[in-house]
Predict the structure.
Amino acid sequence: MNESAILCRGLTKFYGRTRGIEALDLEVRRGEVFGYLGPNGAGKTTTIRLLLDLIRPTSGEASILGRDCRAESPGARQAVGYQPGEFNLYENLTGAQLMTYIASLRSDVDTATLRAYANRLGVILDRPIGTLSHGNKQKLALLQAFAPRPELLILDEPTNGLDPLVRQVFHEMVREVRDEGRTVFLSSHDLSEVEKTCDRIATVKDGRLVAIEDVAELRARSLRLVRLDCAHEPSAEPFAPLEGVDRIEIAGRSLHCRVRGPLGPVLNAAAPFEVIDVISRKPSLEEFFLSLYGREVADHVE
Ligand SMILES: Nc1ncnc2c1ncn2[C@@H]1O[C@H](COP(=O)(O)OP(=O)(O)O)[C@@H](O)[C@H]1O
Ligand SMILES: [Mg+2]
C-alpha cells in the first residue's frame, strides 16, 4: 500500500487549440495534504476532471491510489471523495433528501457521520439545493465528499464562497483527514489559504506546472514586505548587516525593507528608534509567482 495517492505522467488536455493542462508530471504521496495553486484559467479544474475521468486526456496518463484513472475508473472513483467547483447536481432535492440519497447509494456512509458533518458545516437541509447560495451549495458539496471517509479527497476550490467561520471548520476537517493518514488534494487561487492547510504546494499557470514547494520550507524563506513607523527618524545602518534583509529605504520616520526569514532581528535593530507600528505583509499570489520566476517583488507596503 505504498503507491502514490495521485500520479500524473505527461498529462495533457487541449480543448481544440486552447491549452487546459500540458505535460503535467505530479506525484501526491499518501497521507499528505497537497495544494494545487494557480490563478483562474491555470488548468486546475481540467486536471481534477482528468483525474476523475470526467474528461479524457489528449495525451499522458494518471492514476489514483495505484489505479489507472481511465482503465480502472470505477475502482479509482470508489476510493475518492470529490467536491466539484460548481455543485449543480440534484437541484430539486433538499439537503436532507440528498443526505438520504447519499446514504442509500454508498454502503460506506453512515447517517450519524452525515449528520455530524452537516451540523459542523451549518448545512441548510430543508430547502431545494437549486435555491441555495453558492456558499451553501459548497457546504453540501463538501458534506458529500467528506462523509464516506474516503482514502483520497479531491476538492476543487473548496473554500470558495465559504464565510470565515466555516473556513475554520473546513481546515479542522482537513486536519482530521490527515491525522487519520488519508490524503487530500485541493485546488485554490489563494496562497495564504493553502499555506494554512497544505504540506506541499504545486503551482500552475497557463496550463503548466511552475514549481512544487514544501510549505514548511516556503515559510522559512518566505519573503515579507515590512514597514516600521518610528518615533525617531531611523537610519539604515543597523539594518544593512542583517541577514535576509534588503531594499532598505527611509521615508521620514518610516523604514521600508524586505525580510526573508524571521522578523525578530529587524525589530531588535529598530529598538533605538522606538517603533510605534509594524506593518508586514506577504506577497500576493501574483507577486509570489513573479518571485518563483526569479523576478522582483514589489518593494513597498502601501
Ligand atoms: N470545456 C472547455 N472548453 C474549452 N476550454 C476550456 C474548457 N474548460 C476549460 N477551458 C480552458 O482551459 C483553461 C484551463 O481552465 P480550467 O482548468 O477551468 O482552469 P482553473 O480551474 O485553474 O481556473 C482555460 O483557458 C479555460 O478557458
Ligand atoms: Mg477551476
Q: What stands out?
A: The longest helix spans residues 164-179. The mean pLDDT is 91. Residues 44-45, 85, 156 surround magnesium ion (ligand 2) (CB under 6 Å). Residues 92 and 132 are 11 Å apart (CA to CA).
